[in-house]
Amino acid sequence: MARSHAISVLLDDDLITFNRVIGVVRRRNIAIASIAAGASQTPGVSRMTFILQADDASADRLVRQLQKSFGVRHAVMFPAEEAVTREIALIKVRMDPADRAAFLSVVSQFEAAVVNEGAGACIVEIAGAAARTESCIQALERFGILEIVRSGAVAMRSAEETDPAPAPHNPSEAVL
Amino acid sequence: MSETLTGAQILCRELLAAGVDVIFGYPGGAIMPFYHALPEYPGLRHILVRHEQAAAHAADGYARACGRVGVCVATSGPGATNLVTGLATAHMDSSPILAITGQVSRPMIGRDAFQETDIIGLTLPITKYSHLVQDVSELASSVREAIAIALSGRPGPVLLDVPKDVQNQKFEYEPSRTAIPGTLTPGANPGFPGSLDQGIQEAAQLIAAAERPLIMIGHGVILGNAYAEVRALAERTGIPVITTLLGISAFPESHPLHLGMPGMHGEVHVNRAIQHADVIVGIGLRFDDRVTGNTAAFAPRAKIVHIDLDRAEIGKNIPVAVGLVGDAREVTRRLVQAVEPRNCETWRDEIQSFVRPRADAFSGDLSPESILASIYEVTGGHCTIVTDVGQHQMWVAKHYPYERPNTHITSGGLGTMGFAVPAAIGVHIARPDESVWSISGDGGFQMNMAEIATMVQEGLSVKMAIFNNGYLGMVRQWQQFFHEKRYSCTPIWSPDYVKLAEAYGIAGWRVENRGQLADVVQRANAHAGPALVEFVIAQEANVYPMIPPGGSLSEPIEAQPAAAPAV
Asked: 20 to 30 A Cα–Cα from A98, which one of A125, B253, B282, B463?
């Protein structure tokens, strides 16, 4: 049965490895909800986080294929619902001065923030779980949404469980 | 001590340092500096192919025959893209080859320059590793790393893309002393709880408790040189051995415990044994769909013990009771120590009762079986057979009596027609002292027959057999069984192969009946130089039995169906 998995990959910080990792995911025909990439705790090593819908066996096969890909230091999966997942979204909303009070009330209701304001529009920033972002977007729709930029979710399994730090680069180990 | 060398010279020096002595290639604009340097290094023999695809297949054949990295070289653009099929073939069959491609000079990259392609991007899914060399300073380490990766763990193809200006760049070269790592040490498998030792104990207990155990072996036994260990396991336990297409020749076929090939064209008794088995010990195979048929119906009673170097293979295609990750030789050796001696006589008798008289598949007296028997008799088995893809490939797999390890080379995973002739060139160079026969159908042979010229120019004594039935036979067979005998686009015209041989200046014969067979095979095999033999076989000869695609191993087609079944 398909459910939401977070797949967290530590990989060499170069585009060819990013490309290889994306290719391994792509050719397995798995529905991707989001992709996020950025720095990890180790210089030269990036972290990619995939949120995807798949049955456990397919997700596990994907992780094993990732683990043996050159440039991948570590790959792990965990159920997205049980993990801490966060994303940031920037939402550009049309701003009619007449709606200002109602608009600000929605912003404060979602603990969002207005981070940029111009004539007739402003940018709202919201960070949190994807569901909250979705609700916030829905609530802002009546003012007129002009543009949305979402980072994709980053995820950590829990405070207790820490993935091992990436091993030093060694080609004979990186490729199984 | 350092010396000033160009990138091209460093490339040659590093190949020599890695033990490379032959390169299959084709020159062109972006690889010209390399070809300029090559004559300075006579230790690197260059085989000029007629198409870059053949360079990749020849490197693949070479690597499979001797276990060393096979090297192919091409220029940028079309030269590089022509390698793609060969790289994909090597990737599917875990063959260690290094492709070196020229690339346009660095300032031109990304500007759609003449003969520029993103070969790294094109080959990413079909290589273990690929790298665009950005500067001459990283060239030597890139070559070492690429070769180490190709050979380590589960072998596979790697690609180095070297811009033309990097080949010309000068550098203070200092040979490094980095050793090339060998195969990966087997260790604990993080996919399964417990250590390898614990897994081996569990496997040994399953084997001890089994009433109907089987051993299935694949290419990993050949790559891991685990012949003696597999044989010891079989002989200690009396468990019959099944060899997959790429596992053929890993276990002597005259051995009383050898059963045969499983799967789509496996013998009925082999597939029935699988369907009745309660434990299957799979070593170095990946339970490919041509082996399992419908996985839901595959070996329904069996617990699977799976030994593989690649942990991603464990449980990939079928559920596994015990997964053992590691080198086939080492893990099997430890399993042999852990199992108690036993005998599976009752089970073997039961399998014998499954054996069916062979369906009368061949009409006409020049049967594929008789041709293969003749090649075996003439060569005394001191021969490596390289097959193409299609009916002849299955006939060879089923009927040629392999005795010596790694004497059967074929494109299994990708099923690349046109593989046999160029791959046989590589095999011949790796094994100059024994006969190498490529066997192709009339379709596959015509895909790469231009390589006859390569054999002539390089003096390569490859023997080429063509099974000519005037059809793309395997596709025609599928059309016969599953597509209402509508032979759409499968009849294929051939040139006069004897005259073709004459045009190339090589020996050539046509065999049309059994009476000519032994004499011609004898003369072709003894001929000093390339030789071609066309065998004219029955047009509608079929490969039996056959499991329909996606069907269960329990439901073979054993003879020509009266009416086409619905599939």
From this structure: A125
